[in-house]
Amino acid sequence: MECIALSRFGDKRLEKVENLLCERILEKNCVSLRKIANDRAMEVRFGRFLLNEQVTMKALIEQRISQTSQLAAGRHVLGIQDTTELNYQAHADRVSGLGPVGNGKDKGLFLHPLLVLDAKSSACLGFGAIHTWIREWPTEPIDKKKTSRDYQKLLIEEKESFRWLDTAARAKQHLTEAKMLTIIADRESDIYEEWYRIPDEKTHLLTRASYNRRLGNGLLLSDYVAGLAVQCIKLVSVRERDKKRSAHLAKLEIRFGEIEIRRSTGCSDKNAPEKIKLRVIDVKELSESVVNGEEPIHWRLLTTHQIENVEDALQLITWYCWRWNIEQLFRTLKKQGFKVESSQIETGAGLTKLAIIALGCALQTMQLTLARHDEKQERPLSDIFTEDETVLLNALLPSLEGKTEKQKNPYQKGKLAWAAWIIARLGGWKGYASERPPGPITMYEGQQEFAALYRGWRLSKDVCIP
What is the CATH number of the domain that holds 444? Predict the structure, then answer.
């Protein structure tokens, strides 16, 4: 699969190495330099590229967001942001330049991308921004109470949570041609400064509430929501999730209303207003549909979007559900996919650069996964596949299709959705529309199989036995 290097390092030879590195990661579906290199010389070449100071993280990030602006032009797009930690404790004895991760002990780094989807079809368009950082090790024993008090006094720009505002602001700058941008995030992004700074006439926020805020009318948010009338009851099929939630049909009560949130005591921006007008959607599972004694589903969503009716509320709930795609992206990047945490690069800077490159490769898996939802089938096959790979896709298709229409590839030839159907079949999907759609891991395994077939096909062409 093609990976075009658009960044500029001041040396075309570096760009060629980057192209080759991307291609090998996609071919072998891993980031181990030893496995993706043909020989020791190539392994050393890749390692030197990642350590080269001319190869900046800024340039690598700009490359991976460069095409998104054009694809987003004229569309309403969703910018889904979240954080994942990369834990390299297994290699801690020989890696330098890493910091503590979530448990405060292991060595690692953090990635915080903003994934851009089409709001109508959920087609994956790319990244709107990517933020990376490595925490510093404390120089003295931590007094948690004192640290917490001191942290609260910091300006938002000095806090790690500023990443939510910074990433949203960078995405706004990059996606200026979009018709509308809705930025979606989980509870960590419920920050008063963000509600104040980010929204404008074409930029909206949709965030899960983290705090039981005091409202302008004096009520707590929970008390206000409890007094709202149930607008509808919605049946939703819930997927199994990491053994924390069983697959089942959930019966959900939907309430919504308009609120004013008061400026929080932790807000450090003196220019922030005393109140901000928002809308709230409360999604709560009825006890009769809860299974296995699990916690009932309960989302309290805050948004700057207008909610005129039930349909508006349900649309916003659907968009929030699509936040799952960034978690799928992280699954593909890590243990169940490209295994980025298994890399044996020996510096934090090199590991961060490799993680950015691998994130771009994992994006292609997500683009294939979501291509089947592109109703207009706007994205061409050439966005991901080369001409030679397209020839092989055409050759493979007859062996993957069945005799009945239900077993045929239903998508238009030459479109990305058409290729995604083939890759999913190679990954073990049965091809029936009635089946659960193939997920990113199925697509990842299909990419692996396709890459192996492609190498064999190229070899047979090169050998050319008479």
Answer: 1.10.740.10
The pLDDT score that the predictor gives to residue 223 is: 96
Can you count the helices (H) and strands (E) in the chain?
15, 11
| The token pair that represents 87 in the structure block | 């834990």
- List, for residues 266-286, the tens digit of each pLDDT value: 899 999 999 999 999 999 999
Residues 6+ apart with CB under 8 A from 228: 255, 256, 257, 282
Per-residue tokens: 57: 């993280």
Q: Are residues 243 and 340 in the same domain?
A: yes
Domain that holds residue 292: 58-347
- pLDDT (tens digit, 9 = 90+) per residue, 398-456? 999 988 888 899 899 989 999 999 999 999 998 887 778 888 999 999 998 998 898 88
Based on the structure, what is the number of domains in the chain?
A: 2
Q: Are both 69 and 115 inside the same structural domain?
A: yes
Angstrom distances, CA of residue 15 to CA of 18, 21, 49, 104, 185: 5, 10, 10, 37, 34
Domain presence at residue 268: yes
- What residue type is 402 in one-letter code? G
Q: Judge whether residue 127 has pLDDT over 90.
A: yes
Residues near 378 by beta carbon (within 8 Å), at least 6 away in sequence: 123
**Spatial contact of 117 and 123, defined as CB atoms under 8 Å apart:** yes
pTM of the model: 0.91
Inter-axis angle of helices 57-65 and 348-371, nearest 10: 10
